From TrEMBL:
The keyword Endoplasmic reticulum does not apply. It holds the Pfam family Response_reg. The modification 4-aspartylphosphate is found at D64. The keyword Nucleotide-binding does not apply. Keywords: Phosphoprotein. InterPro entries: Bact_response_regulator, CheY-like_superfamily, Sig_transdc_resp-reg_receiver. This is Response regulator. SMART domains: REC. GO terms for biological process: phosphorelay signal transduction system.
Length: 134
């Protein structure tokens, strides 16, 4: 029971939505964030992600850019243009490392931009904590 209580206080049960089409990456982060005490859901493409944002009301979204149906930039535009969800915090987590992608994501409202190959799962957790604390 003490372990359950510890899990609940860690991360304060904030809700995180992972929008990622790579199932391995999505599962890895879902497991890591759940162990950190967050409530986590996954959407495997951008279109499903936008719908999940509306139904799940996450405190933060981890968003990939290259995905089927709607890419991450389309998701950022949908979030920005919808008054019901435009206060949602988003961290882009992508393989795209070009400066123009980072600038575009930030211009569309992303709070941070992570290049997947340059961050460990614990680094991502720390970024999440930082963004949620803002």
């Amino acid at each position: 029971m003490a372990e359950e209580e510890k899990k609940e206080t860690k991360g304060a049960k904030e809700k995180i939505l992972i929008i990622e089409d790579d199932r391995f990456i999505a599962k890895m982060y879902q497991t890591k964030l759940s162990l950190e005490g967050y409530t986590v859901e996954v959407a495997e493409n951008g279109a499903l992600g936008v719908e999940k944002i509306k139904s799940f009301s996450p405190d933060l979204v981890l968003l990939d850019i290259i995905m089927p149906e709607m890419d991450g930039f389309g998701v950022l535009e949908a979030i920005r243009d919808d008054d019901a969800i435009n206060s949602t915090s988003v961290i882009v987590m992508s393989n795209l490392a070009q400066e123009d992608h980072l600038k575009r994501a930030k211009a569309l409202g992303a709070k941070d931009y992570i290049v997947k190959s340059q961050f460990t799962p614990m680094d991502v957790v720390n970024k999440i904590k930082d963004v949620l604390a803002r």
